[in-house]
């Protein structure tokens, strides 16, 4: 039902909202497999998304860098692979992290089932082969067009690639059902048919013991505040990750057009809120669905309405046949999809461009594997923000000896970014050190690239001016933006401000007439 809402409020024609592997895994971990908790969790995260959109907080995703996103996506791909491999081997898997799950599976590996394992592994191979078949495209000869048979072959290749998951499910379910092989494979089992009841999600739940997604009442009431505490950081991680997935679709197919992040937050929030009144859980955009939609010729958001109708019809008329779908087949579909989400191709470009980015990406990857996923995401984002703060606190500062047209020399100090409180002590030490080392030279502080300052900047500038005054050394501020002059005017010490080289030369002449000639040789050591 959220698709219908997205059709009204969504801004991207290529975005098809629905469940995704990443959001589903996070929801499962937070809600611990309880569908009622999943519905309430989806409602709360939808409200958070709506509030974020209305308060224009979409810029938050700008703090999730490409390396963090690549590391997180790769870790999630391995975690999803791990969560599904147990359904192919049919072994027990417990734990909140990647390592804990693998340790528990290896302990139970002797109980694997050969029939499900063979079916699952062969399904993965078939899906990968069909994926490559879908990419086959017969090209027309030079100075010619494709024949009718060639166009038909291209259509068949494309259809096989796009519909490979549905084809595999249909074939395996038909074989199991027709040959009565339900004793040989783990099957999906009973799925309630019909339209789900329209109801307000439960804000408090009886204590439960969850088995296969269904809860047994054990008598202890869980209040709303208890559930809120149980959801924890997942309430913030899921909206952020869902927005990242959705914006990846929108930006991939935008073709240069701007994308309104806040509008997408609003539409996702409303879609998830509306969905929960029909027992739905987390939905957001998915790159695979967007690719299929674009390749299929989808022109507007109304494609979401067609998808909604198809899902409703399937729930009403086909649900009873889902009983025969082997779980190993479904696991193979998910594994074959997430294998291509491993971002190994980004390692080489990151290594060449900035090794610090590669370090952050590997840190995000490791944190998400070792710790619970939500904690790993927060740790990776926190490390990335620390790196950003470090970069802002350590601007590049160029120190040059400049000769004027009249033959006078001065020391030019140029920071490459804004001067705000994290960087001021570093900049102050650099200016004082350069000034003392070349105490016979006037110093020009080039403010061309300074676009922001604060109160701490003004206090540091005042200390710098006092130090230069104590040595009777000239300090000139060059090309300071007019809107930043107000910040400098809050200091008590007088300062010289110039906007042209003529102004600088005039100040140097005035200083020279007072006994500081500024005439030095070009061999002056900096």
UniProtKB/TrEMBL annotation:
<dbReference type="Pfam" id="PF00916">
    <property type="entry name" value="Sulfate_transp"/>
</dbReference>
<keyword id="KW-0812">Transmembrane</keyword>
<protein>
    <recommendedName>
        <fullName>SLC26A/SulP transporter domain-containing protein</fullName>
    </recommendedName>
</protein>
<feature type="transmembrane region" description="Helical">
    <location>
        <begin position="302"/>
        <end position="319"/>
    </location>
</feature>
<feature type="transmembrane region" description="Helical">
    <location>
        <begin position="39"/>
        <end position="59"/>
    </location>
</feature>
<dbReference type="InterPro" id="IPR027469">
    <property type="entry name" value="Cation_efflux_TMD_sf"/>
</dbReference>
<dbReference type="InterPro" id="IPR011547">
    <property type="entry name" value="SLC26A/SulP_dom"/>
</dbReference>
<feature type="transmembrane region" description="Helical">
    <location>
        <begin position="155"/>
        <end position="179"/>
    </location>
</feature>
<dbReference type="GO" id="GO:0055085">
    <property type="term" value="P:transmembrane transport"/>
</dbReference>
<feature type="domain" description="SLC26A/SulP transporter">
    <location>
        <begin position="2"/>
        <end position="361"/>
    </location>
</feature>
<keyword id="KW-0472">Membrane</keyword>
<feature type="transmembrane region" description="Helical">
    <location>
        <begin position="325"/>
        <end position="344"/>
    </location>
</feature>
<dbReference type="InterPro" id="IPR001902">
    <property type="entry name" value="SLC26A/SulP_fam"/>
</dbReference>
<dbReference type="GO" id="GO:0016020">
    <property type="term" value="C:membrane"/>
</dbReference>
<feature type="transmembrane region" description="Helical">
    <location>
        <begin position="231"/>
        <end position="250"/>
    </location>
</feature>
<feature type="transmembrane region" description="Helical">
    <location>
        <begin position="112"/>
        <end position="134"/>
    </location>
</feature>
<dbReference type="InterPro" id="IPR036513">
    <property type="entry name" value="STAS_dom_sf"/>
</dbReference>
<keyword id="KW-1133">Transmembrane helix</keyword>
<feature type="transmembrane region" description="Helical">
    <location>
        <begin position="356"/>
        <end position="389"/>
    </location>
</feature>
